[in-house]
Amino acid sequence: MPNTPAALRNPPNGITIAIPNWNHEFVLGRSVGSALRAAALLRAADVPAEVLVLDDASRDGSTTLLRQLEALYFEDGLRVLLRVENSGAPAAVRNQALFEARYRYILFLDADNEVLPENLPLLYRSILDTNAALVYGSLILVHAESGEAQHLLSAESFQDRILDDNYIDTLALVDRMQLLDANGLLSDARMAGREDWELNLHLAFSGRRLVFVPVVAGYYYTMPHSLITEKMPPEVWQRQLGYVRRAFNQLDLRRGHLLNTRHLRYHPDLGYI
């Protein structure tokens, strides 16, 4: 992202919890509530924090709900931005958050998921200690309709098999300056629904650090009819895999190649592990 405004070149430390939303009226309260609790906990530990919801021109009752929530919780750090036109791509909304956030570090939280407030300070300490572009923890996969916890996601460090499929969820804490320097997320129809995969590879293979922190970062809910649970046509998946291989591993030399990020695991109370 060229021509970064001067005001963004040296943002203060702290965390913006950024929640992109499109038509998630019935689960927004859970996501925003967890983010507000996390922001309060961070501020109690002298870490500046805010919650930023970016609504991508929702057509359900989201905008009315968000205006009400902002009126109630503005003093608690909640800001709402309402897009007039739908972007058609979650990456565009997350890229907007890179410019709109008040603080240097951004936690991306999907509107249908939930952050675990108690462990966000550990992610924050980890990204400060390691100078990583992105730190992430494990997620507990929860069946949205039954409420049953199923298994862990994102529960391992960066490894070669990420060339075959992504296992690092979007719920991660990122250094906004490093993402801006890397031109943000790719807004490209070829990677629709898997922009985070492309970003993870782009960061890793351009020398950035992606660090796994062995704590639970939040809850991932398997929502019916979401981008992930809707079955992707095999031809779309093959096109995306083809793009990844052309962009990052055309000569098949990446596996076993030295990276700054391979197998990086860090806990702020223990160091690298």
Kindly describe this structure.
With 273 residues, the chain is of the alpha/beta class. It has one domain: Spore Coat Polysaccharide Biosynthesis Protein SpsA, Chain A (Alpha-Beta Complex). It has seven helices and eleven strands. The chain has helices spanning 25-44, 62-73, 90-100, 120-130, 176-181, 195-205, 234-248; strands at residues 15-21, 49-55, 78-82, 105-108, 114-115, 134-143, 149-153, 173-175, 210-222, 266-267, 271-272. Strands 1, 2, 3, 4, 5, 6, 7, 8 and 9 form a nine-stranded mixed sheet that branches. Strands 10-11 form a two-stranded antiparallel ribbon. The chain is globular and about 55 Å long. The two termini are 34 Å apart. 40% of the residues are buried.
Entry keywords:
7 helices; Spore Coat Polysaccharide Biosynthesis Protein SpsA, Chain A; 9-stranded mixed sheet; two-stranded antiparallel sheet
Concise synopsis of the structure shown:
With 273 residues, the chain is an alpha/beta fold.
